[in-house]
Amino acid sequence: MKKYLIYIIILIAGIVIGKFALSGEQTQEHSHTETTEKETMWTCSMHPQIMQPEQGDCPICGMDLIPAQENTTELSSDQFRMTESAMALANIETSKVSEETASDAALKLTGTIEANEKTNAMQTAHFGGRIEKLYVNFTGEEVRKGQKIALIYSPELVTTQQELLTALRMKASQPELYKAVRNKLKLWKLSEAQIQQIETLKKVSSKFPIYASVSGVVSKKLVEEGNHIMEGSALFKVSNLNTVWASFDAYENQIANLKKGDAITITTNANPNEELQAKITFIDPVLNTNTRTVAVKVELNNREQNLKPGMFVTGILNTKTTKNTALTIPKSAVLWTGKRSLVYVKKSANEPVFEAREVVLGTMQGEYYQVISGLDPAEEIVTNGAFTVDAAAQLQGKKSMLNASKETSSNSMTPKKVTVNAAYEKAFLPSIKAYLELKDALVQSDVKQSVAKSIAFRKALEQLTVEQRKETDLYWAVLHKTSKSINENTPIERHRKNFQIISNHLIELVQNFNHLETQLTIQFCPMADDNKGAYWISNEQQIRNPYFGDAMLTCGSVKQVLGVGN
């Protein structure tokens, strides 16, 4: 009996030990499985929100999935990580901010050659009559001071000549009358020789010549033979081209870097290898409110007549003395959204970790902006591919162009505030419908339909009253003007570029509507616009991409829902 009891105890002990051993193996197997699953998660380089346990195609854009990188470092709420593959595909480049960049900054201006207004003159008729003969027949003809330019029949001169001959006979008894008639002829620019000829021949002439009062080139011909003219009427506009102006337009943010007397190097398209050294002669004190520019003029010597009015010219000003201690960044690094200016800062030297940073910009220096605040020297920023990085930030719900703060969802957009009333919204609905039809034409890559729908969109905009247009005048003008660029003379690629501009402005406007009758979605494709990303409005949840059509019909995602129930 005792022997059997020992056997039973040994058996129970074996069962318990085996159970624990098996449990350990299962735990190890479970742990191994979890590790394997972590190591085999797959994502899309352009859509990092896609995470799948197996290799395959991206359900959004159809690209091959790549292994997801495991997050090994803690990130702040505004920071996000991109994959190395996404960085390479989007050709993202970074560079460090430095004060040294400003030392090479130069201000570039473009303009045209113009006639020097100080040398312009108007050749006028000194007496009225009918033009019998013109000796200058075309614009561009050169005239010399004293050259005969026209022959005029003047009834007034005929009468005055008769008065002169009568006064000549009464000269002894009425010398003042004789002198008054002679002075009258002189005021009509008759020379002393002409007056003496009338007195000697005692014969009245019916036609009198007009002589050029200045030398130059006829820049505008104002009369033809047979025209009747009055005293003081303009015959020709004459420009002396021995000196000309190089006239440039400088934008508001460039004005601070310009002053009269600044040295400027000028080149022309006709002679790009020849540099002209000059100084700024004049800066217009009044800003052109239509173009937001001021005129900058430089007087140039043109005795060789090599500079022709109308020629395109480029002017370079070296501004290093005014910006030698400023931080500057390339224009390509800056993203604009309303009043905000954003750059993307690379936060880790060893990993592609980024963070959106708002900056305050100063004046523009050529291809660079001065940074007033927001960046420190030696920080590394994205200088190429900033739109792609921004798209990645939006998809991960981080601070971006459209999301002003980390609390903003990646599926929402921060609208620009525009005040519109219910009546305006109702009147604008046909324009939205026409826009959606234009979008569908681009989805089909149908050039003919795209042109027709752009015309329909423009006509819908024109149905708004003048008062309604004033409520959103800037938006209306941009939408109307841009739609004209979608025409039969431009390819489908250009149609899509202009459709992107229309979409951006329409989204800003429609986001402020409160009485939409149907639900709309704002959709986004990160691969459109050369991987910079582009938005559009749709009346359905399904993605039908107008920027690629059949080539990538389903590439994109819904970013915001507008209208009924939202």
Describe this structure in words.
Helix 3 (155-169) runs antiparallel to helix 4 (175-187), helix 7 runs antiparallel to helix 8 and helix 7 (422-443) runs antiparallel to helix 11. 30% of the residues lie in helices and 27% in strands. The chain has 566 residues and is α+β, with helices and mostly antiparallel strands. The protein has four domains: 95-104 and 325-395, conserved putative lor/sdh protein from methanococcus maripaludis s2 fold, CATH 2.40.420; 121-239, Beta Barrel (OB fold (Dihydrolipoamide Acetyltransferase, E2P)); 243-318, Elongation Factor Tu (Ef-tu), domain 3; 422-562, no CATH class. The protein starts with a helix and ends with a strand. Strands 17-16-20-6-15-19-18 form a seven-stranded antiparallel beta sheet, with no helix packed on it. Residues 20-38 and 405-412 have low confidence and may be disordered. Strand 1 and strand 2 form a beta hairpin.
Task: List the topology elements.
Elements: H1 2-39, E1 42-43, E2 51-52, E3 66-67, E4 79-81, H2 84-89, E5 93-96, E6 106-115, E7 121-124, E8 129-134, E9 142-143, E10 148-153, H3 155-169, H4 175-187, H5 192-201, E11 207-211, E12 216-221, E13 228-229, E14 234-239, E15 243-251, E16 263-268, E17 276-279, E18 282-283, E19 293-301, E20 312-318, E21 327-330, E22 335-337, E23 340-346, E24 353-358, E25 360-365, E26 368-373, E27 380-384, H6 386-395, H7 422-443, H8 447-462, H9 466-471, H10 473-483, H11 492-510, E28 520-525, H12 528-531, E29 534-538, E30 557-562
Antiparallel strand pairs: 1-2, 1-3, 4-24, 5-27, 6-15, 6-20, 7-14, 8-10, 8-13, 9-12, 10-11, 12-14, 15-19, 16-17, 16-20, 18-19, 21-26, 22-23, 23-24, 23-27, 25-26, 28-29, 28-30
